[in-house]
């Protein structure tokens, strides 16, 4: 099992397979690097070096008391990139991981990152504020925090239904996919999951998006019930200096799993062009 001891003593678990140009995958809340199985296998077979870490407090990484905010998440990734000596890397983030990607690239990625991909990402900011009136009301995130803290096992069982769009008419529900979501979530720390809600909902990534010069692909499902594309992807693409936007009618938040064939094809086209 590969782990990196971080500056504060926490241990970060990561998978590092293959050779070639590195692709680093950043998972969403409250999951782990395992959520990228479809992409890890696909891009490994295309000749890339594929790397996926478990964010601190998630999966197999240390369940720390502190550090569950974007500055620390990005700094942890910077340590991993330095440890593995990653250069000309592609960073791909889903949901919360998308915020982690753009924050890392802006703060630490100069000279190491070639391209980035934001999938169903929380950028530029999710929560409703005076400057972001179209955002999601804070009460929604308060409920997520409360149920995570007090009813996590059942709440996580229920959460995956909308995550994968299985609550839509005509959807073919796959119990194994939902069970795997729950398995990943329950491996992590309840404290990390509770505090990460603040990180993914209220962090403002506007300046990160504005400052990044590298090519960035923004992918988002138009039926995303978790992170609405109108308040995230559409705005993020406009803020980027070198952004490309693709939205998918009917695709859910968890589209890297449910629509892996389409997502993988579009990412491959972007990173090889």
Note the beta-strand portion: 15-25%
- By DSSP (H or I, 4+ residues per run), the number of helices equals 10
Number of strands: 8
Arithmetic mean of pLDDT? 98
Oligomerization status of the protein chains = single chain
Which sequence of strands runs across the widest sheet?
1-2-4-3-5-6-7-8
Task: Give the helix/strand class.
Answer: alpha/beta
Helix content: 40-55%
Termini Cα gap: 34 Å
Q: List unreliable stretches of 5+ residues.
A: none
Question: Taking Cα atoms only, what radius of gyration do you get, to the nearest Å?
Answer: 17 Å
Sketch the major β-sheet. Answer: 8 strands, mixed
- SSE topology string: EEEHEHEHEHHHHEHEHH
Form type:
globular
General description of the model:
The chain is 43% helix and 17% strand. With 273 residues, the chain is α/β, with parallel strands linked by helices. The chain has an eight-stranded mixed sheet, sandwiched between helices.
């Amino acid at each position: 099992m590969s782990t990196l001891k971080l500056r504060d003593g926490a241990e970060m678990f990561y998978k590092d397979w293959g050779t070639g140009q590195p692709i680093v995958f950043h998972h969403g809340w409250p999951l782990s690097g395992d959520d990228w199985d479809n992409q890890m296998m696909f891009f490994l077979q295309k000749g890339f070096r594929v790397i996926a870490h478990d964010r601190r407090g998630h999966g197999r990484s240390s369940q720390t008391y502190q550090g569950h905010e974007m500055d620390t998440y990005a700094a942890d990734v910077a340590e991993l990139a330095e440890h593995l000596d990653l250069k000309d890397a592609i960073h791909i983030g889903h949901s919360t991981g998308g915020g982690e990607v753009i924050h890392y690239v802006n703060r630490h990625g100069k000279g190491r990152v070639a391209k980035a991909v934001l999938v169903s990402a929380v950028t530029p900011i999710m929560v409703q504020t005076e400057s972001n009136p179209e955002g999601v009301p804070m009460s929604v995130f308060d409920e997520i925090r409360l149920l995570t803290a007090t009813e996590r096992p059942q709440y996580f069982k229920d959460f995956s239904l909308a995550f994968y769009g299985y609550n839509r008419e005509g959807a073919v529900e796959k119990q194994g996919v939902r069970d795997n979501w729950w398995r990943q979530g329950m491996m992590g720390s309840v404290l990390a999951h509770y505090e990460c809600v603040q990180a993914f909902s209220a962090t403002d990534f506007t300046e990160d998006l504005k400052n990044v010069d590298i090519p960035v692909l923004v992918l988002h499902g138009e039926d995303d019930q978790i992170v609405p594309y109108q308040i995230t992807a559409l705005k993020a693409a406009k803020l980027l200096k070198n952004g490309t936007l693709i939205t998918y009618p009917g695709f859910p938040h968890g589209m890297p799993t449910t629509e892996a064939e389409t997502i993988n094809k579009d990412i491959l086209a972007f990173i090889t062009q």
